[in-house]
Every structure is written in C-alpha cells, then in structure tokens.
Design a protein that fits this description.
434 Repressor (Amino-terminal Domain), alpha+beta, OB fold (Dihydrolipoamide Acetyltransferase, E2P), single chain
Amino acid sequence: MASDWFVSPEGLSRARQVQLITQEELAKRSGVSVRSIRKYEQVEQRVQFDTLQCLAKALATEVKNIATLRKRGEIARQSEPPRAPEPGSPLPARTQLETLVDLERAAGIVALPGEAETLTAKRLQDVFTAYALHDGALFLLEGRVDGMRGIAPDEAKLLGSRGGVAARFHVLKPVVPGQSVGVTVHTAERAHTTKLQALYGERARLLVRVKVVPGEPRDDGPGFSSFITRLTTKRPWTFVVESVEDAVTVELPKLGKSAVGKGAKKPAKRT
C-alpha cells in the first residue's frame, strides 16, 4: 500500500530551535516559504518528500526527525487535541532562549548591577517567566535595530501615546559571539521613535522599562504586539523605551569549546 509523508510540528520546531534560527531564516536556507513553514509548525499535514528533504538539509538533520511516514488513507492526528504530559514524561524541547541562557552561563556572562541592570538572556527569561514581578524594572539593552512596525491606536493608548507616534522595534542583542536574541521594544515618545528609525540597521543603546497591562491579563484582553511569529495574541507586557543613544561597541567574552552544549551549533558570524 502506498504511503504519504506527514510533517511533525514538534519535530520541525525542535530542529529549528536547535539550530537557533527563525522561521524566516529557515525559509531562506530551504527555499520553502515562510507561510508554509508556519503552517507546518502548527498542525500535522501531508507534505511532499522533496520539500521535507529541503527542510532537513537546511536544518542539518534527517527527514525522519521532522516527519512521519504513514500508510495512505490513515488519518493524521491534526484534529486531535494536545495531550497533557504524563507524570514522569520528558520535558518539552528546549526553546531558543533557554539554549542561549545555557551558552551565556557557560561563557560566564552575568547581569551587571546598577541603576539599570543589563538585559542578559537570563534576565529576559526571568521577565518572560514572571513579567508581573518585574513591572517597572529598568534594563540596559544594546543591540542592532533590525525591524520596526507601527501599532494600533488602542495599543498606543496603553503606552500613554497615540497612533502614528508610538511604534514597536526589534532589537538583536548579542548574547555570545555568533548568537543573538531578538527583543521587542515599544516607543511612546516622538523623539524615541524618530531616533530608533534613524538608527535602523545600526547598533543602539537603550534604557527600557518593563510595563505591564493593568488588571488581570486575559488571552483576549488588551496587550502589546511583538515580533515573535508564533504568538497569535498580544502579550500583557512589553519593554518601553526611556532613552536612546548610539551604541558603543563592546567586546563579548570568547566562547570556549566547553561552552557549546549538545544540540547547539558552534558560534557563527551571525544569528
């Protein structure tokens, strides 16, 4: 009986995270559209074998690690609701941020104290995990401005600003040599928006403060948009820019061989 290949959303997402690349970067490497990759990571579906080969090659893995061969006519599991992990079952695959925290720790990089604490990968992980505990916290963020988008008037209002003035920017912060983490920040003041637009494609030094939406957060409630492609709803917190300066280039500690953990690629020129 003939068989068909079905993509594994978990397998594909895990393989991409191990390589520390975005969906957009995977699209460039494989020749598969970003739209298709997003669908493949959301739901199990039938995929042509040559497409799987392109994805596997781009991810330096085997097809069997990102797909399942199933007899034709066998129903895929795409309609099944996700099951809760059974007691004692393995933890989910590590995220890109968790892998970067491991590399950062191995390199001996820690947050520098001061009026504004350095936003390291670990501190970013702390905010993501329990954002309400960090409401109002001030951080120093340095990185390259590589994305910008306008925001809706209701989102700008949460920032005490207005539509057409407030905006969101994507900052690539170096963590260890060859590895960066993307951080979404929002501007509320005209001067900050103008300055970050002028620094587009360049390095910037920002003071950012954690701002949490008042009240109990809801999945369908008000919030802030981000550059994380897998998020379908707005998140109830963001980093609001309080000052912007041209960045001073800082040399990162070199990453030794022992710092590169299993599943992480060796530092390259860029992530």
